[in-house]
Amino acid sequence: MTETVVETKTYPISFGDYRARAISLGAGLHVLERIVDGQWLQLTETYDPASKPPLGSGMTLAPWPNRIRDGKFEFGGTSHQLDITEPAANNAIHGLVRRRNWDLVEHSEARVEQSIEVGQHPGWPYALRLTVTHELGDNGLTVTHTATNEGSEAAPFGLGVHPFIRVGDVPNADCTLEIAATSYLPLDPTRNLPDGPPQPVAGTENDFTTPRSLAGVWLDTPFTGLVPDASGIARHVLRAPDGSATALWSDAAFGWVQVFTAYPERGKPYLNRDLALAVEPMTCPPDAFNSGLDVVVLEPGKTWSGSWGVTGE
């Protein structure tokens, strides 16, 4: 049965060769398209906006991305117990704002800004305000996130996003993938939690520093050691056989990227796609509130900001 989302709003934007829609649920990216030879081609997966986003497609994951073991963490000498939102693995997953409708701040032809108060929740006493801005320009889509600590005590923070990319109608299994990362984090396959420290990708099945075919590749893997290009951004590229490509980039605020392949035969279908590919910018890895790895500590009154985007080639 399809799960209906109540009062979800979509916000279309356009600029030059690009058009996109942001969505109020989770301040998500609903779709990004580029016109090529008179045809609009999808650079991201999409779905019926009246339904639940499949596999969290496009959602903003905050104030932590991914999972927290047993929903427990300690910060500033205080122990916290979050609600368990992944019962099968006994984890708290993907933060507190992805299943809520965000407030519209501003919507113009090429830009939409949304915001939300995270609010007080079991195990989460910190007063954070988040914003997400989707903006189109000559180079495609730029998404900028901010988090402001409006409370009186320091707060831990992490953020991730869950976009699925594609190159028009080309099957992903016919494409190559290049990931600008030198290390990966091993995960326990049962709970998708860290199973040791980051390891070099060199010489492993997780080495995508040069383009590799996606056919038959199974990934649900956090990567780090991201390698920036000359402009200071890390670029991960999905390329079709004819040379056309979709690139997802992130700035230095995002030190991690989780790459996930969705296959129906693995029990993770993305609607009617034989293979869907999520390339997920993250500021920190799974269970970071316990490991402390790359957790942002927001002091009262301070604001964090980071950007990522998608472009067609």
From TrEMBL:
Question: Which positions make up the signal peptide?
Answer: none
State what protein this is by name. Aldose epimerase
Could you mention a single GO BP entry for this protein? galactose catabolic process via UDP-galactose, Leloir pathway
Question: Which GO molecular-function terms appear in the entry?
Answer: aldose 1-epimerase activity; carbohydrate binding
Q: Which domain of life is it from?
A: Bacteria
